[in-house]
Fold this protein.
Amino acid sequence: MHEITPMRLTTQRQVILEELFKVTSHPTANEVYDMVRKRLPRIGLGTVYRNLELMSETGLILKLEVGGTQKRFDAVVTPHYHVRCIQCGKVNDVDMPVQQSINESAAQSSHYLILSHHIEFTGLCDQCANAQPKPSMN
Amino acid sequence: MHEITPMRLTTQRQVILEELFKVTSHPTANEVYDMVRKRLPRIGLGTVYRNLELMSETGLILKLEVGGTQKRFDAVVTPHYHVRCIQCGKVNDVDMPVQQSINESAAQSSHYLILSHHIEFTGLCDQCANAQPKPSMN
DNA sequence: TTATGTGCAAAACATTTGCAGGAGT
DNA sequence: ACTCCTGCAAATGTTTTGCACATAA
């Protein structure tokens, strides 16, 4: 009845994916839109949203539901954790080993069927931490 | 010049706080609005947003930036982790010990000044896990 | 009394969606 | 050809904000 039709390889999809792979900055949909628009000026924001969503459903990319108001996207799909700067909102990877074992602790401490976990650290990035040390000002 | 004026104790604030303490469901701003409106029918949604924001800045309550489209609020401010059902979106606490030590791992694996972390588990809640094995229903 | 807080409505964002025309296979 | 996909714009959903009036301290 219904065959699984593979997703078509359109120019828009290629460019979105290429641009996402160029950066490590976990851009928002709108930032991806800006990047892609330099090469495809007529692309619509809706197309960017649709394709980022689609690619993250497929597992081709990762949709990050981290703090802040916008979702972010990551071309690196192997499990890893993130840090977010509470000052400027920037998000970076944390290259520490993924603790698979904590899924079991959570399974014992909840009534859920645990599938995965994500850790979001919060702190200050280089730049913001160095800009901070001015405690006394009015 | 500027003294720190304490936040005024208004009826709206009392009721918002009381209602939030009544539940363990991590309601969204709109859900809090519905709860509060039963007691204060003329309260505005803006007031609820303003006060939830204010109280979370003060540390009186917790603003959860978990997955999904809306922010959620929690009257329990002691650090703890959360699980979110990928099916129905419900959020619950996970009563496992908080791993303070992983902050150090993260500090070594990033250029950030790490302040804290939050773990969000994802899985299926009781009801959704039991509802799964039934592909045909209406 | 007076700075803060509230209700209301509009604005500001972020994201999704309907549709007519366009492009991949 | 025949879908699926895109651009555009409008709709939706969430949160913020401006302002005149109300109220806690």
